[in-house]
């Protein structure tokens, strides 16, 4: 804004506006301080610093005069920065790690879990009387040792002496601030109680107490002992030594790995694995190819049908256009995730309407044959997408001045010629950016694929959950969160990065050609 | 209805000629309409069919029975009412929030001149190309961390999911709104400024009222996309009671497609009605919003 020294009338500041501003800023500060305190106690100094700077900046922007654009842009930019920009950078970071189900924490946590997983009951261990206590959602063991001393602890908090109330046998039963579980609760929470393994001390080799029935506890000691100096595990049974292999796991000389591992940087391993591993590479190439075919064919089929209908109705003599239009665009208004599920039922090979009624009972494998499944996905997407193309083509056709078509007709052009030489070129100019956007959208059209086929039928040459109709984004989802084969966040992020690169390249080329960016200038 | 003023064509030309020039268009239109509405009619028909499985659903509109709806609302495995309310809450708050954030940014871009304005607009246009859920892995892992710092915005909370959706607000909406804000003459704000109104007052009491149509469209589109979003919602909301319709209905029908079919269709009908109604109600604005980018 220009700052020429003109007369400025006094600004009236509304009291209510000031109150709203103070309340909102106060709320933001409250959450900010909460975060700062938590980060302080977690000793996450980098995040603490970032949070401090951001919080100070927000307060400065809204309390200091001036910097008007910042006052309006900050709220949106704040969320954009975290949930759209930062997550992309973070994806890039994860893609270079081995972050996955077996490698999801740091090395210290991994050592503790290895010790706990390898625990076995010590033969003729003394019997401890135990009670299971609960605080919030966390379970604790209250252990009465043979000397009658009560000790309390849980998985990550070793046993320590507490003041407890005892029953007539001398068994400790309850502690202030905790709920004691009765037999029924113990049965209901059996899995959580079986997973309780309370260490005797901070030394992971000291062993721990576990209980199966919530009444008697026994000493368990790990068959693997950890040697801190050598950073290695030794199996007490056969003397095998496991050492840090540099890829986030302890490994023996014969290549046997202990689980879990921990998170380390693995460089470009995920990308190498994506293309060279024979379980991932060949299916991935097919998926990339199909993603392109799916996106291109989706745009072409929906655009062709939408344009055709728009041309058909682009005649002033056709009546009831409004009714036609409302009925035709219904699929576009119908929630997309439901459409996939509805079509999955319609196309069910045994009971679905299509096979039973339209094809008279033939069992056509619409969703389990690789080629038919691809056709089905495209059909569903045609149904979902053509109303949109119909709408934008209708709009674009109406904006073509009538004089042009009339002049052509006066010159003796046939109706088809008018369409081909005048309407189509003009229409393409205006809808081209939308077609590119539609391509980018369909490139990542998760719902259509996942709700109809889940990406299946599965490929037979891989044990991973990858199938003939999978596109890249469904692959990311299945690799990161799917059941089969565990969750591999590192590999999934590497796939995400591939999608970013492809979409960016394609859009850059396409937009350069259509010069859609001119709008900005 | 302007069509009524057009002379009825059949009288002025023979049926053959009418069919060749106009009639066939109706034929095409009827086929297109059938293609469009058949799956929807099928869903409606199954939902009223008392048999309730895929096998028994193939005779359309044979019976009218509300059994599926009754079971839908009473089935303890599928807390449909909770899903519906969750969807309304998540959709409404993220819709309103997105509109608000987008409007603030569009106002700044449209009315103020500042360093980085053009770069900012360009970057938003680019951000639009990359939907949020591409970074789903990172979003999930970020939410794991946020659960430690702000449990009230962490995994499994609606608030957390809404915050994530708000992160996509600027990229998707600002550009659409920016164009519309530009159509409001700046002389209006200048007049208000001379009368002594503050920038906040101009924005909240004058500009926002003038751009109401685009706010409605953007709000509705944000609502629909949040209500139908599956990828992020399925990762963040794992407890069945907190899930949205997209996640809940998907899980419900994919567990036992044939057995749950009738109840699912009843759920689909109820979930779709508000969205379809809103959409048709506002379709004129939506269409103009959709084409605003291309048709000048």
Describe this structure in words.
- The complex is a heterodimer of chains A (521) and B (296).
- Chain A has 3 domains: 18-94; 118-242, D-maltodextrin-binding protein, MBP (Periplasmic binding protein-like II), CATH 2.40.430; 281-520, MetI-like (MetI-like fold, Orthogonal Bundle), CATH 1.10.3720.10.
- Chain A is built from 18 helices and 15 strands.
- Chain A has helices spanning 15-42, 45-63, 68-94, 107-117, 183-188, 190-194, 269-276, 281-313, 321-328, 330-333, 336-346, 353-358, 370-398, 402-410, 415-443, 446-452, 472-481, 489-514; strands at residues 119-121, 128-135, 138-144, 150-154, 157-161, 165-166, 172-174, 179-180, 198-199, 208-211, 216-222, 224-227, 232-235, 241-244, 250-252.
- In chain A, the strands form 3 sheets. In chain A, strands 1, 2, 3, 4, 5, 8, 9, 10 and 11 form a 9-stranded antiparallel sheet that branches. In chain A, strands 12-13-14-15 form a 4-stranded antiparallel sheet, covered by helices on one side.
- In chain A, a hairpin with a 4-residue loop joins β12 and β13.
- In chain A, α11 runs parallel beside α16.
- Chain A starts with 14 loop residues before the first helix and ends in a 7-residue tail after the last helix.
- Chain B is mainly alpha-helical.
- In chain B, 44% of the residues are buried.
- Classes of the chains: A alpha+beta (521), B mainly alpha (296).
- Chains A and B meet through α1, α3, α8, α9 and α10 of A and α2, α4, α5, α6 and α7 of B.
Tell me what portion of residues of chain B adopts beta-strand conformation: under 5%
Order of helices and strands of chain B: HHHHHHHHHHHHHHH
CATH fold category name of the largest domain in chain B: MetI-like fold
Corresponding CATH superfamily of the largest domain in chain B: MetI-like
**Global outline of chain A:** elongated
The whole-number mean of residue pLDDT values of chain B reads: 84
**How many β-strands of chain B, per DSSP?**
0
Q: What's the Cα radius of gyration of chain A?
A: 33 Å
């Amino acid at each position: 804004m220009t700052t020429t020294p003109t007369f400025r009338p006094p600004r009236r500041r509304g009291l209510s506006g000031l109150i709203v501003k103070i309340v909102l800023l106060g709320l933001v500060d409250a959450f900010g301080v909460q975060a700062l305190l938590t980060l302080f106690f977690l000793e996450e100094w980098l995040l603490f610093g970032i949070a401090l700077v951001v919080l100070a900046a927000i307060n400065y922007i809204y309390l200091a005069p001036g910097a008007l654009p910042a006052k309006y842009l900050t709220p949106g930019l704040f969320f954009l920065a975290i949930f759209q920009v930062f997550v992309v950078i973070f994806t890039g970071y994860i893609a270079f790690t081995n972050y996955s189900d077996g490698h999801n924490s740091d090395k210290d946590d991994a050592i503790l879990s290895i010790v706990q997983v390898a625990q076995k009951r010590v033969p003729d261990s003394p019997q401890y009387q135990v009670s299971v206590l609960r605080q919030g959602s966390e379970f604790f063991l209250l252990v009465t040792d043979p000397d009658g001393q009560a000790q309390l602890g849980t998985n990550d908090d070793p046993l320590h002496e507490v003041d407890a109330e005892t029953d007539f046998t001398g068994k400790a039963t309850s502690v202030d601030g905790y709920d004691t579980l009765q037999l029924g609760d113990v049965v209901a929470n059996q899995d959580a109680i079986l997973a309780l393994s309370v260490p005797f001390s901070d030394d992971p080799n000291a062993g721990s107490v576990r209980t199966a029935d919530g009444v008697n506890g026994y000493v368990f000691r790990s068959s693997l002992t950890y040697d801190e100096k050598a950073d290695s595990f030794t199996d007490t049974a056969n003397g095998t030594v496991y050492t840090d292999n540099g890829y986030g796991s302890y490994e023996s000389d014969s290549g046997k790995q202990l689980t879990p591992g921990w998170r380390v940087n693995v460089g470009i391993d995920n990308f190498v694995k994506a293309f060279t591993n024979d379980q991932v590479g060949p299916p991935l190439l097919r998926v990339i190819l199909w993603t392109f075919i799916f996106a291109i064919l989706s745009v072409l089929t929906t655009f062709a049908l939408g344009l055709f209908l728009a041309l058909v109705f682009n005649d002033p003599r056709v009546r009831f256009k409004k009714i036609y239009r409302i009925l035709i665009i219904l699929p576009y208004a119908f929630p997309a995730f439901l459409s996939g599920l509805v079509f999955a039922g319609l196309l069910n090979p045994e009971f679905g309407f299509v096979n039973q009624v339209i094809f008279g009972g033939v069992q056509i494998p619409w969703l389990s044959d690789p080629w038919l499944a691809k056709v089905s996905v495209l059909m569903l997407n045609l149904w979902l997408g053509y109303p949109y193309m119909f709408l934008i083509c209708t709009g674009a056709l109406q904006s073509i001045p009538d004089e042009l078509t009339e002049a052509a007709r006066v010159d003796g052009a046939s109706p088809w010629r008018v369409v081909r030489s005048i309407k189509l070129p003009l229409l393409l100019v205006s809808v081209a950016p939308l077609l590119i956007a539609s391509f980018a959208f369909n490139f990542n059209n998760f719902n259509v694929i996942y709700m109809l086929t889940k990406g299946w039928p599965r490929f037979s040459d891989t044990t991973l959950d990858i199938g003939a109709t999978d596109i890249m984004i469904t692959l990311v989802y299945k690799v990161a969160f799917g059941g089969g084969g565990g969750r591999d966040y590192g590999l999934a992020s590497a796939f995400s990065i591939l999608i970013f690169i492809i979409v960016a390249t394609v859009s850059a080329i396409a937009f350069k050609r259509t010069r859609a960016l001119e709008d900005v200038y | 209805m302007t069509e009524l003023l057009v002379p009825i064509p059949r009288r002025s030309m023979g049926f053959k000629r009418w069919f060749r020039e106009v009639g066939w268009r109706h034929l095409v239109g009827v086929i297109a309409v059938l293609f469009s509405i058949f799956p929807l009619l099928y869903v409606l028909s199954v939902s009223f069919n008392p048999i309730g499985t895929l096998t028994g659903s193939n005779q359309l509109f044979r019976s009218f029975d509300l059994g599926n709806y009754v079971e839908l609302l009473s089935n303890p495995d599928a807390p449909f009412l909770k899903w519906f309310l969750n969807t309304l809450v998540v959709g409404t708050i993220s819709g309103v929030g997105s509109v608000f954030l987008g409007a603030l940014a569009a106002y700044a871009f449209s009315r103020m001149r500042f360093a980085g304005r053009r770069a900012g607009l360009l970057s938003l246009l680019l951000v639009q190309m990359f939907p949020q859920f591409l970074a789903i892995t990172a979003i999930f892992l970020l939410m794991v961390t946020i659960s430690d710092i702000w449990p009230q915005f962490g995994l499994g909370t609606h608030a957390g999911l809404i915050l994530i959706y708000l992160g996509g607000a600027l990229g998707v909406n600002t550009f659409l709104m920016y164009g519309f804000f530009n159509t409001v003459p700046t002389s209006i704000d200048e007049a208000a400024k001379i009368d002594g109104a503050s920038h906040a007052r101009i924005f909240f009491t004058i500009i926002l009222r003038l751009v109401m149509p685009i706010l409605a469209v953007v709000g509705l589109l944000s609502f629909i996309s949040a209500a139908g979003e599956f990828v992020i919602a399925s990762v963040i909301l794992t407890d069945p009671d907190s899930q949205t319709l997209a996640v809940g209905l998907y899980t419900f029908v994919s567990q036992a497609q044939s057995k749950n079919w009738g109840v699912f269709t009843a759920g689909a009908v109820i979930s779709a009605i508000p969205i379809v109604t809103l959409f048709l109600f506002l379709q004129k604005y939506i269409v103009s919003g959709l084409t605003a980018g291309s048709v000048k």
